[in-house]
């Protein structure tokens, strides 16, 4: 790459003139990396502070900008074996962080209050059988009120705001009955305290908040961890672009590009941003966008899209605003249409609370009225009983039933190399019975590789990789990348359009076309492209093509065994799709599909009552991803597509897709169990409350007992559930 | 029962102290790096070599 990239976009300057830079770091495997990295950084002149966060794998640097260039940092890190790239905190991540801190504070307050109130409440309960003077009891209630009211006002914030937001949109969510329950419990208790009554429910209200907050903190912690890891991955993609700043060409991070910038895209490079070609002629591999593997010829005036790979010619490109291309506009329009159906999906817990809230409020009303009108209770007693029904039914277990499972499931996803974009995705993935795969970049690896690697001597293969490092030809670049080749050979010379040669072991090694290497060209060219190597009298043909993901055959087999319907939908030519479908044994496949045709196919399956999972990476898949019941993308997918996916998977293997299905299925079963349990609990507790027998002790026991049970049940997802364990082996073998 | 007059405030005060501790640690970002902190204590790069 030559010149160092200009990282000034990421640097923030303090008022005292020092600069701050955050780097995302890849390759941290153990704790020993910590002193390694920090010492290496502190040795650089001008570095004031270097602190590595082992949890988030980020390095915070404070340095004197006059003494050291930011690009030095990544260079030094690379030399000691870590890949690093400046990291820019996204708004989403900052929001998640703020939310986590607030929840933790609320939990702290709720636990503090619950402990102190319990101390008093237990004295009151045990005092009822002995002889607690009524004055002492009233005093204890008063102290409880003084602690509970401000604590509830603070710790209840997350629930109150969410309930209020739901009511304003004329919806009901689980936070509405929670808010009503807590408020009524506190109100009734204050009233009872004033009137020297036996019972007060301060403990129930506060404990309810503490349990619920604990569940949400766990959920949020998991979400934050996922977001951090995803943020790092995005940063580490860290591509640079060659930009003309009016006087000279400089390397800048892609994140710093703006509309109107003039870029140079060299042969074999990825196009960093959408733009229009000003100068140059080349062929562009648009497989990331359309799925089509044949390069498309382009010249001045044509549009090129971010994520496509430039062929043999250099292009000068002016960056245009995103969404200006017909293709992207079309995709966005289709996504919007397809996405409408999707936003109507209602979560399990919302569906339950939609029924639950009116049901319990009606029960409480009927109970109160019956006691008052038919059983001759005083208005005060009837009201107390009605409210105690509400307190007992306050959906503690119900509200914990789903989030606890969600937290555990996203942890399991994380360990299998998956990120959940949307919590709703989990429930939807658990319902899947049909899977539709895209071919290019989904079933096949995103980068082409050597198909016949096992037929070629290892030393020759290594030599080929190192020779390829000296070439700008797209095939050579793909070769070098896929072989993870070492340093280029010294004195290598490229003959444009033919190949690379370099002195090697007294003779000459050549890599390039058949003629260049003096080899017999293959009579019939199949879908693979060939590249030849000659060294020390030996000649070999390397066949470069899009290879299947290493475990694709096994995973497809597994999915079929699990009884799922499988289909392949590709934008690529039918001739290119057929061998893949045949190898995988998928009978139903289509090639040459346009985005609209892909949607139509998915819709047709949906019309048959199938729950479709779409797995795809291209821009052409994005609308189908949005239309499908659930969707998964590989991490290499284009942004727009990833945004539509419920989950994103890492690595070269297809295993995470199967793991996602297994985990979600398990999670969904646990959610249903938990919800059923919560309802059974209510079926038992509500009659007791309706009979007017719900003492505060009973309420406290029932509530905490059910909450703990539901949480323990969710933890089973962590334990050695057979299917999950089988599929969720850690995916550590990615490059 | 008079002992309650200072035992209850004492219990609450202790609880508040712990709560203050939590808020303090959150403000100082003490939970930022739970893994790193465990290893950092083993590093002795802050000890001057003699």
Which features would summarize this protein structure in a list?
heterodimer, A: 735 residues, alpha+beta, Alpha-Beta Plaits, Four Helix Bundle (Hemerythrin (Met), subunit A), Rossmann fold, seven-stranded mixed β-sheet, six-stranded antiparallel β-sheet, 51% helix, disordered C terminus, B: 50 residues, mainly alpha, 62% helix, ATPase_P-typ_cyto_dom_N (chain A), metal ion binding (chain A), ATP binding (chain A)
- Mean pLDDT score of chain B: 83
Strand order of the largest sheet of chain A: 15-27-26-25-16-23-24
Strand count, sense and barrel status of the largest sheet of chain B are: none
What's the quaternary structure here? heterodimer
**How many beta-strand runs of chain B?**
0
The radius of gyration of chain A is 31 Å
Q: Give the CA-CA distance, first to last residue of chain A.
A: 20 Å
**pLDDT under 50 segments of chain B (min length 5)?**
none
Topology, please?
The complex is a heterodimer of chains A (735) and B (50).
Chain A: E1 12-13, E2 19-26, H1 33-43, E3 47-53, E4 58-63, H2 70-79, E5 83-86, H3 91-129, H4 134-155, H5 157-168, H6 175-194, H7 202-237, E6 240-244, E7 249-253, E8 262-265, E9 275-279, E10 281-285, H8 287-290, E11 296-299, E12 303-304, E13 309-310, E14 315-319, H9 326-343, H10 348-373, H11 379-393, H12 396-415, E15 418-420, H13 423-429, E16 434-437, H14 439-443, E17 449-450, H15 458-468, H16 474-483, E18 493-495, E19 499-504, E20 507-512, E21 529-535, E22 538-545, H17 552-561, E23 565-569, H18 574-584, E24 589-590, H19 595-607, E25 612-615, H20 622-627, E26 630-634, H21 639-644, E27 647-649, H22 655-690, H23 696-715, H24 722-727
Parallel strand pairs in A: 16-23, 16-25, 23-24, 25-26, 26-27
Antiparallel strand pairs in A: 1-2, 2-4, 2-5, 3-4, 6-7, 6-8, 8-14, 9-12, 9-14, 10-11, 10-13, 15-27, 17-22, 18-19, 19-20, 20-21, 21-22
Helix pairs in contact in A: 3-4, 3-7, 4-6, 4-7, 5-6, 6-7, 6-11, 7-12, 7-23, 10-11, 10-22, 11-22, 12-22, 12-23, 13-22, 15-16, 22-23
Chain B: H1 4-27, H2 34-40
